[in-house]
């Protein structure tokens, strides 16, 4: 990257002096965003292909949602759930109709939503399925990412994230993703649930074989096991359908959503579930001071209403080939694989031309904000409001970077 300006260096140094190093951000200081674009402290603009890990699906500074947030803040910002606040019922109806689920429980973050789903599954296992107390097992997938709380890290296989945080919560087993036979072999009488991402995001946008989700649904129904879909990244229009599970026309028992549920303006998450499963929650069994607050509810309702039009899902599907096919042309000439759905794509960099961080640095120099997920994998997540010209720009810049590195390799 180019040498940092004094203003950027001052911000980074101050953050390093007083902050904590649980992140290793790129040396880029942003101050403004609009639509699919962000601007750094020195006035340079970047096409945002990170979208705050799919939280800003509707772009930056979206006036439609900002007005909703400001309007609600001026009326009533927080009550806790000890009383009713106008608007929650409207949201609950909107998101259950959008998803096809029966009920919703609101939290704040994706990790909280997944923790809530785990609690629901375990209690359902004991109270409904009849699993002996403290014997419930939940099956998760190798390469998963569901958050970084202690319990969630108990079923992660990311050793860097696990190191030094044990002892971990028991009751989890990992199987290979996209392997229905391995899942079938792991299910036993004490299995309460299977939790998976319909597409693994942190793994590098790993898309399972067509029919895999449907096979998981059929197997879990047959064995009286809950299916939990973590749609924190894949949900809310990201992949061309409102929720990814809808692409295979299935209905899980529990679904978790977050990130873009509030258009990225405030932390909002939710667990969607069937009547039978959500009935395990009774007063005092779960809660959150900020979960379901009036501002979160107003924003989430507005997002649901926008997605209910189907406009963005259709545009996402129509523009997918512009992004996907444009990048597929580079396979064998610097890229080894391209995969994805909608405006969410993972690409693998041929080691012959360098690492994923090398390519990321080149693209940032050319005005594309992007991030790698693995040493050789890059995740592309344009806002779902990105237009054809912006997508074509990304493809051109990626092509220029990859072709230049491929040519340099041959010299």
Question: How is this structure best described in words?
Answer:
With 411 residues, the chain is α/β, with parallel strands linked by helices. The chain contains 14 helices and 15 strands. The strands form 3 sheets. It has a 7-stranded mixed beta sheet, with helices on both faces. Strands 1-2-3-13 form a 4-stranded mixed beta sheet. A hairpin with a 4-residue loop joins strand 2 and strand 3. The two termini are 24 Å apart.
Topology, pairings included?
Layout lengths: L5 H13 L11 E5 L2 E4 L4 E4 L2 H4 L8 H13 L12 H12 L3 E5 L2 H20 L7 E5 L8 H4 L5 H4 L9 E4 L4 H7 L4 E6 L15 H11 L3 E5 L23 E4 L11 E5 L1 H4 L15 H15 L2 H18 L6 E7 L2 E6 L6 H10 L2 E2 L1 E4 L2 E5 L6 H23 L1
Parallel strand pairs: 3-13, 5-6, 5-7, 7-8, 8-9
Antiparallel strand pairs: 1-2, 2-3, 4-10, 9-10, 11-12, 12-15, 14-15
Helix pairs in contact: 3-11, 4-11, 12-14
Query: Numbering strands along the chain, what is their spatial order in the largest sheet?
Result: 4-10-9-8-7-5-6
CATH architecture of the largest domain: 3-Layer(aba) Sandwich
Q: Which CATH C-level class of the largest domain is it? A: Alpha Beta
Number of helices: 14
- Name the beta content range: 15-25%
How many separate domains make up the residues? 2
CATH topology of the largest domain, by name, is Aspartate Aminotransferase, domain 2
Q: Provide the low-confidence segments as ranges.
A: none
Q: Which class of secondary structure composition applies to the elements?
A: alpha/beta
The counted number of beta strands is 15
Order of helices and strands: HEEEHHHEHEHHEHEHEEEHHHEEHEEEH
Q: Strand count, sense and closure of the main sheet? A: 7 strands, mixed
Please name the fourth-level CATH homologous superfamily of the largest domain.
Type I PLP-dependent aspartate aminotransferase-like (Major domain)
Termini separation (Å)? 24 Å
* Helical residue percent band: 25-40%
Radius of gyration: 22 Å
The rough form would be described as: globular
Keywords: Amino-acid biosynthesis, Aminotransferase, Proline biosynthesis, Pyridoxal phosphate, Transferase
GO biological process, one term: L-proline biosynthetic process
Pfam families: Aminotran_3
GO molecular function: identical protein binding; ornithine aminotransferase activity; pyridoxal phosphate binding
């Amino acid at each position: 990257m180019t040498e940092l300006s004094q203003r950027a260096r001052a911000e980074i140094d101050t953050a390093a002096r007083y902050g904590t190093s649980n992140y290793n951000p790129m040396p880029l200081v942003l101050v403004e965003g609009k639509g699919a674009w962000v601007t750094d402290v020195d006035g340079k603009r970047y096409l945002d292909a990170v979208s705050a890990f799919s939280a800003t699906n509707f772009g930056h500074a979206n006036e439609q949602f900002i007005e909703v947030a400001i309007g609600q803040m001026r009326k009533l910002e927080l009550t806790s759930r000890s009383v009713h606040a106008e608007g929650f019922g409207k949201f609950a109806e909107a998101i259950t109709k959008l998803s096809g689920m029966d009920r919703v429980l609101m939290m704040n973050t994706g990790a909280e939503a997944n923790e809530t789903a785990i609690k629901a599954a375990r209690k359902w296992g004991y109270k409904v399925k009849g699993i002996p107390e403290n014997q419930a097992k939940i099956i998760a997938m190798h390469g998963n990412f569901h958050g970084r709380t202690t319990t969630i890290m108990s079923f992660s296989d990311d050793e860097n994230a696990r190191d030094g945080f044990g002892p971990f919560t028991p009751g989890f087993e990992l199987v290979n993703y996209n392997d229905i036979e391995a899942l079938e072999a792991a299910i036993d009488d004490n299995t309460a649930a299977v939790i998976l991402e319909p597409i693994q995001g942190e793994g590098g946008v790993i898309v399972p074989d067509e029919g895999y989700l449907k096979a998981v649904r059929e197997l879990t129904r047959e064995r009286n096991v809950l299916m939990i879909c973590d749609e924190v990244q894949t949900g809310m229009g990201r992949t061309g359908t409102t929720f990814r599970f809808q692409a295979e026309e299935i209905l899980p028992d529990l679904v978790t959503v977050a990130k873009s549920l509030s258009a990225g303006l405030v932390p909002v998450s939710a667990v969607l579930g069937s009547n039978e499963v959500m009935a395990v929650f009774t007063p005092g069994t779960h809660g959150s001071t900020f979960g379901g607050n009036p501002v979160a509810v107003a924003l989430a309702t507005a997002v649901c209403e926008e997605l209910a039009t189907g406009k963005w899902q259709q545009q996402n599907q129509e523009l997918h080939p512009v992004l996907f096919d444009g990048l597929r042309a580079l396979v064998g000439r610097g890229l080894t694989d391209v995969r994805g759905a909608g405006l969410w794509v993972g690409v693998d960099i041929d080691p012959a031309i360098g690492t994923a961080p090398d390519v990321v640095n080149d693209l940032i120099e050319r005005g594309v904000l992007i991030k790698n997920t693995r040493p050789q994998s890059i995740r592309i997540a344009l806002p779902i409001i990105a237009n054809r010209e912006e997508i074509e720009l990304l493809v051109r810049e990626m092509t220029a970077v990859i072709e230049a590195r491929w040519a340099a390799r041959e010299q």
